[in-house]
């Protein structure tokens, strides 16, 4: 699921319920460089909608989203800093 040459940072959010997966994802992305990638794993069924919506609203790219045996995995590329 990695589209770049560098390994994405990993964020394990399994077991957390809405809105925590989005809030924690937002916090981690805020501390990352533009265009870096974050791999997020969740078990919350609502994360499929919430993470996609968050990425659109915040200007991040949802590179990949896939169902796993225990939930979902998202690869997010951090968007540019907005002035």
Automatic annotation (TrEMBL):
Protein name per Swiss-Prot or TrEMBL: tRNA 2-thiouridine synthesizing protein A
CDD domains in the cross-refs: SirA_YedF_YeeD (cd00291)
Gene Ontology MF terms: transferase activity
UniProt organism field: Rhizobium halophytocola
Keywords linked to the UniProt accession: Transferase
InterPro entries: TusA-like, TusA-like_sf
Alphabetized SUPFAM superfamilies for the sequence: SirA-like
Family: Belongs to the sulfur carrier protein TusA family.
Coiled-coil parts of chain: none
EC category name: transferase
Highest taxon of the lineage: Bacteria
Enzyme Commission (EC) number: 2.8.1.-
Domain spans labelled UPF0033: 10-78
